[in-house]
Write a structure and sequence with these properties.
The protein is mainly beta and 517 residues long. It has helices spanning 9-18, 20-27, 205-208, 215-224; strands spanning 42-53, 56-64, 74-80, 86-88, 103-111, 116-124, 133-141, 146-148, 170-177, 180-188, 194-201, 229-235, 246-253, 256-262, 280-287, 292-294, 298-300, 308-314, 320-325, 340-341, 348-353, 356-361, 369-384, 393-404, 407-414, 419-425, 430-437, 447-451, 459-466, 469-474, 479-484, 493-511. The protein contains four helices and 32 strands. The longest helix has 10 residues, at 9-18.
Length: 517
């Protein structure tokens, strides 16, 4: 396999054609996921451009095709009809221009009459020898191939007020409202604190409404694409919420305004925020006149070990769907010999309840459930196994209905040496995920805890397992915890333990995707 220190589109196309045998070898890796989106080869991180175009669901992502570690960023591209079974499409963007020679970084996509429009951050070298510069760029395509605008970058950090960062200026989130396009970007303010800036463009709407452009209109569109105006600070930093607020996302959900962002450099605050990289949501109020988001209380989106850079889209049926990178920047482990790295979470439907976000795996997953096994009103005392309750690609719900105990735990992906343990501490009202024995042989954070807010005696734990991932949804989605594991696929046991006695129900399905991925 040819290694590239600097990769351009022509090199990618050549490499792709010359390495069919290598790509097939990677595809046959038994540790690859069965029904989660992952890279064909190489490295994956943030989801980008999550959108619907021409009746299909498109997901782009930060991508380095040539090795399993981070490198010059491309935009990988996959398409799905149902968000469970994904098809690989050609890489949409590569760092092949001076303004994005250091990488095509994160961004978003919008559906227009003119085409599928991508907004991304182009990173280039500072010619004066300073840090790399980050600017916003555009590309337009037909859902398969994409062409960058000649006028790129369309927005540079020079438009920011004095003292605001031109280096941490990235991750454009774009939407249209009443004929005006708005863009959010992350940055740092004059006090070096994280913030989100707002921009608007009233010039490009008339062109994006057309199905095709004349040569003269194309020239006018290119000019209009650069007419972004700074609209002020959309959302400001709050105490102890990290440095840069990466990957901003704003949307309406059940009649409320919601802001998502992912801050690095966070110091832990109990079980609500953990050290390092977090994904945060805030239910607040968007003041349309002032163009400002009034912040509410911040909450962690997912309290597991591996969840970052979430992005959402709205489906034609009105559902708001979220997906995130199921990995962590400083808590990543790559098994020896694995030629790919990174995966996305299961797409999740979002709802609001009492001001808190509820997350549930998309209902489309249910069409792939096979071989049901169920138990009702089973009493667990000490350790116990159940016939038919095993596997590594499954959807399993365990309901602890009643009993007298302090701790109840479930081990998944288990054999004589390995397991991942999920413990419910009834007295503390706390869930703990522990992957200490999940196959790592290097220093990796292994334990994460989260509070269960419901006061009910009954608790429901839904597990989505996919070979080397565990996603836990507590009490129908009021809490989620996502964790990568690295256990041999032969470890497929599931066992239950109670330090007293508990009455439980179990419903378990295998997940089976007909197409060999």
């Amino acid at each position: 396999m040819k290694k590239y220190e600097k990769v351009f589109q022509k090199d990618y196309e050549t490499w792709y054609g010359e390495n069919e045998a290598y790509r097939k070898q990677v595809a046959e890796d038994p540790d690859r996921l069965a029904f989660h989106l992952m890279p064909e080869t190489g490295w994956m991180n943030d989801p980008n451009g999550f959108s619907v175009y021409k009746g299909q669901i498109h997901l782009f992502y930060q991508y380095h095709p040539y090795s399993n570690v981070w490198g010059p960023m491309h935009w990988g591209h996959q398409v799905s009809e149902d968000m469970i079974s994904w098809k690989q499409y050609p890489t949409a963007l590569a760092p092949d221009m001076e303004y994005d020679e250091e990488g095509c970084f994160s961004g978003s996509a919008v559906m227009t009459n003119l085409g599928h429009v991508l907004f991304y951050t182009g990173v280039s070298k500072d010619k004066n020898g300073g840090c790399n510069l980050q600017n916003q760029c555009m590309a337009v395509g037909d859902g398969v191939g994409y062409k960058k605008l000649k006028n790129n970058p369309v927005l540079t950090g020079a438009v920011m007020p004095e003292g605001f960062s031109h280096i941490d200026f990235r991750d454009p989130k774009v939407w249209e409202e009443d004929g005006i396009y708005y863009m959010l970007t992350c940055s740092r303010d004059a006090q070096n604190k994280g913030m989100i800036a707002l921009f608007s463009n009233s010039e490009i709407y008339q062109y994006l409404e057309k199905t095709e452009l004349t040569e003269q209109e194309t020239e006018a569109f290119e000019k209009a694409a650069g007419c972004w105006k700074y609209g002020g600070v959309f959302a400001e930093h709050m105490e102890r919420l990290g440095s840069v607020w990466e990957c901003p996302d704003y949307f309406r959900l059940d009649g409320k305004d919601v802001l998502l962002f992912s801050p690095p450099d966070v110091q832990a605050q109990g079980n609500e925020l953990h050290n390092g990289n977090n994904a945060i949501y805030v239910v607040g109020t968007y003041d349309h006149a002032k163009k400002q988001f009034q912040m509410g209380q911040p909450h962690t989106l997912d309290k597991g070990l591996d969840f970052y850079a979430s992005q959402t889209t709205e489906l034609p049926d009105g559902r708001r769907i979220l997906i995130a990178w199921m990995q962590s920047w400083h808590n990543s482990f790559i098994p020896d010999g694995q030629e790919w790295q990174g995966m996305m979470t299961i797409p999740r439907e979002l709802y609001l309840s009492d001001g808190r976000i509820i997350q549930k795996p998309v209902k489309e997953l249910e069409q792939y459930r096979v071989r049901p096994v169920s138990y009702s009103n089973e009493k667990v005392e000490g350790g116990q196994n159940f016939d038919g309750i095993e596997g590594r690609t499954l959807d399993m719900t365990v309901t602890i209905k009643s009993g007298e105990f302090q701790e109840f735990y479930i081990d998944v992906a288990k054999d004589a040496e390995h397991y991942t343990r999920i413990t419910y501490n009834r007295r503390k009202r706390e869930i703990e995920v522990d992957r200490t024995f999940a196959g790592m042989n290097r220093d990796v954070a292994c334990i994460r805890r989260a509070e269960v807010e419901s006061e009910s005696e009954q608790i429901t734990l839904r597990f989505i397992l996919d070979r080397n991932s565990v996603e836990l949804f507590v009490n129908d989605g009021e809490l989620s915890m996502s964790t990568a594991i690295y256990t041999p696929q032969t470890a497929d046991g599931i066992s239950f333990f109670c330090d007293g006695n508990a009455i439980i129900d179990i419903k378990k399905f295998d997940i089976e995707i007909p197409m060999n991925r």
